[in-house]
Specification:
The structure is a homotetramer. Chain A is an alpha+beta fold. Helices cover 27% and strands 39% of the residues of chain A. Chain A has one domain: Thiol Ester Dehydrase, Chain A (Roll), CATH 3.10.129.10. Strand 5 of chain A pairs antiparallel with strand 5 of chain B, so a sheet runs across the interface. Chains A, B, C, D: It comes from Alkanindiges illinoisensis.
C-alpha cells in the first residue's frame, strides 16, 4: 500500500534533511509524483543555467517519491541506474519541476521516467529514465 | 591541441569556482583524465554513503577535463546525455576518484566512459558513459 | 519540411528493402510516428517471446520515421545512442507496436523516446530513448 | 560455479539455434567473454555497414555468455536494460567482435560492459552497458 504525501514528506524530512529543504512534493499518487525543486546559487552553472547533477537529483527524488507513494515507506530502495538526456538549458531563476511516472513496479526492480521542466515553460529541459532496486522484504 | 593541467585548473577555477574547490585534477592527457573529489557532509546520504548526484558530478567533471585536455579550452561544450550504473555503496569517508577515457572525439560529439571509485578500494562504485556536444567553431 | 507517409514508405522501400518488408508505418506526423512490426519466427526467443534486438530495431525505425516526418528525407542521419529498458515479456504471436515522440529536434542532434507494445495489450513491453545525429546540410 | 566454453556452446545451440549459428564463443572465463559474430547480408545497412540491432545482439550474447561463464547455466536470466553508444561505422565485410567484462555480479542483478569491434580494426565501433536480472534460485 502506498504512503500519503504527508507521510512521505515527514519520512524525507527525517531521512534526507538537507535535500528535503529544497525539494517540495507537489503531488504523489499511485505510480506517479511531481517534485518542485527550489534552486539556489549552489545549483547554478556559468551562464545562469542549472547544473546537470542538480537535474539528476530532482529526477532521483521524483522517482523515489513515486515509489514510496506506490509501495509504502521503503527506506532501503537504492538507485541502480539512471540515463539522462539534456534537451535545453534550464532557467537558473526558476524552480525545477520533476514529473515522474513509473513504467514497471516489479518485486525487485522499479523503472520510471521523469520529465524535467523549468517551472512555467512548456518544453522539457531534460528527460531521465531510472531504476531502483527494492530489497527483499 | 589539448590544454595542460595547469591551464585547465586555472580555467575551471575561473568558470566553476564552487565545484573546483572540491574537484582536484589528478592527471590529464590526450583522451583521458583522473579527478579526485573531496567529499564533505553535503555529499552524504543516510548510511554514510555518497549521493548519486555527487557521483554524476564527478563523472561530468572528469569527462569535461578529458575533453579540455584533448581539444583545448572549449567553454561551451555541454553535456547532452549521461548513463550511470551504480554498482556498490561508496564510502562516505573517502575521496571519490573519477577515471575517464574518451571513446570517440568527433567534430560535434565526444563520448567517454568514467569509472568511479572510493579512493583506495579496487572495486568500482559506479560507471558512467556520457556525451558532450562541441559547438561549431 | 517533413515528408509524408507515402514518401517515407517509398524511401524506406528503396533504402531498407529487407527491414521494410516487416515494418509498416502506422502514422507519421510532425515529431511523432507509429510503427507496426510483423514478427516472424526469426524474431522469437525461447518461451515464445520477441528478442531484445528486434525491439531495438522497431525503436530505431520508429525514431527514424519520426525524424523523416519532421525534417524530410535525410538519408544520412545515423543513430548515435540508444537506451532500452525491457519491462515485460512481449507476446511472440502479436505484432510489435513502436510509438515514437521526439523530445528535441536540434540542428545536429535529435532525441526521442519510443514506447514499445505487443499489439492489443495496454502495458508497454519496453521503453527506448535514442539519439540521431543529423549531418550538416 | 561458472560453466565451460563447451557447456555454454552446447547450451546456446539447444536454446538459441538460430543466433548460435552466427555467434561463436571466442573465450569465456570468470566475469568476461569474447564473441565472434559472422555477419551476412541480413545484418547490413545501406553503405555496407552493420545494423545497430545486430550490434545490440552481439552485445547481448556477449553479456549472457559472460554470465553463464561466471554463474553457471542459468536459462532464465533476462536482459533488463541496455545502453548503446555507436562510435564508428562497422565494416560490413568483417566479423563483429564483442568483448564483455562484468562490472558487478549481484544476487539479483548483473551489470557488464561490452566493447564492439570490426575484427582486425583497433578503434571500437560501439560500446554497450547492459543489465541482466537473475531469477531467485
Amino acid at each position: 500500500m502506498g504512503a500519503s504525501k504527508a507521510e512521505i514528506t515527514a519520512f524525507l524530512a527525517r531521512e534526507f534533511q538537507r535535500t528535503q529543504a529544497k525539494c517540495e512534493i507537489g503531488e504523489v499518487s499511485d505510480r506517479s509524483a511531481t517534485i518542485i525543486y527550489h534552486t539556489d546559487h549552489n545549483d547554478l552553472r556559468p551562464g545562469g543555467t542549472v547544473s546537470g547533477p542538480t537535474l539528476m537529483l530532482v529526477a532521483d527524488v521524483a522517482l523515489y517519491v513515486a515509489i514510496l507513494g506506490t509501495a509504502g515507506l521503503i527506506p532501503l530502495a537504492v538507485t541502480t541506474s539512471m540515463t539522462l538526456n539534456f534537451l535545453r538549458k534550464p532557467a537558473g531563476d526558476r524552480e525545477v519541476i520533476g514529473d515522474c511516472r513509473l513504467m514497471k513496479v516489479g518485486k525487485t526492480l522499479v523503472v520510471g521516467e521523469v520529465w524535467l521542466y523549468s517551472k512555467g515553460i512548456d518544453d522539457p529541459v531534460a528527460h531521465a529514465v531510472g531504476t531502483y532496486a527494492i530489497p527483499a522484504q
